[in-house]
Specification:
- The complex is a heterodimer.
- By secondary structure, chain A is of the alpha+beta class.
- Chain A is built from six helices and six strands.
- A six-stranded mixed β-sheet of chain A has the order 1-2-3-4-5-6, sandwiched between helices.
- The two termini of chain A are 25 Å apart.
- By secondary structure, chain B is mainly α.
- Chain B has one domain.
- Chain B is elongated.
- Classes of the chains: A alpha+beta, B mainly alpha.
- Chains A and B meet through β3, β4 and α4 of A and α2 and α3 of B.
């Protein structure tokens, strides 16, 4: 990790492929309710995506225990927006393709009497936003995007992270053009990478 | 290479959706920053305790 700080003191950030230890750590990753796909991606698909340069997966590790606290994957994306009469343009961006806290880490912390609430906000603010901003310094990338699982609590959570939705017509246009089948029912959300 | 004419460029820039994007306020990170800060302070405190307790137990072993 040469382009950003590789940690905050309390957590370190590593690519999935940085070490053999990382490959072992992901075996113990457990996702929360209704998010088995995120666990499955990390265990079965992330490495292949890395090898194909289609996505980069990052592990956030507790710098004291060395446990895997959460992971996220980033890739580039293009968002088509309609200007009417069958015409459209595209907004370039970075897609937060996967983002999940390790329930096994949460559980271990709970057993020590500790509740790891808000770790997602911390990781988003300390790692995901800085990487996206850094990418945008070198390659045109206006938005940070996600396809959110359509659960009210999750959508509210992503709003809290700064994401918003397009209007219905533009949302449908995005779905009609770039939303793959595996993202069926997921809701497109975005936020500007540059805030100033 | 992609060739975008001035007319096409203007058509996009003057569209309703593009104007909407350009006039949007930046993302509101107030809640995010607050949550991240709460967690940062909490985990720093926890790790400090753990480091101290780990150092103490190594001293005992010595």
């Amino acid at each position: 990790m040469k382009f950003i700080e590789s940690g905050t003191g309390e957590f370190t950030l590593e690519h999935l492929t940085d070490s053999e230890e990382n490959r072992r750590l992901i075996c113990n990753f457990a996702s929360g309710n209704n998010a088995f796909g995120l666990e499955q991606y990390l265990k079965d698909l992330a490495l292949e995506d890395e090898n194909l340069w289609e996505s980069r997966t990052y592990l956030v590790k507790d710098s004291f225990t060395r446990d895997l606290a959460c992971y996220f994957s980033l890739r580039t994306c293009l968002v088509p927006l309609s200007i009417g009469n069958g015409k459209f343009f595209t907004i370039p961006g970075v897609e937060l393709a996967n983002f999940a806290v390790n329930e096994a880490y949460r559980r271990a912390e709970r057993e020590k009497g500790r509740v790891t609430k808000k770790i997602g906000a911390y990781v988003f603010s300390q790692f995901i936003l800085p990487i996206s901003r850094h990418v945008a310094e070198f390659v045109g990338a206006k938005w940070l995007c996600i396809y959110a699982i359509p659960e009210a609590k999750l959508l509210e959570y992503y709003s809290r992270l700064g994401f918003r939705r397009l209007d219905r017509q533009q949302e449908d246009f995005v779905y009609g053009h770039v939303k793959p089948e595996y993202d069926q029912n997921c809701i497109f959300m975005y936020q500007s990478i540059k805030t100033a | 290479m992609r060739v975008l004419t001035k007319e096409q460029y203007d058509e996009i820039r003057s569209s309703k959706v593009y104007q909407m994007i350009m006039n949007e306020p930046p993302p509101d990170h107030t809640a995010l920053n607050r949550d991240a800060e709460v967690f940062a302070k909490w985990i720093a405190r926890i790790h400090k305790k753990e480091r101290e307790s780990s150092a103490a137990s190594s001293m005992e072993r010595v």
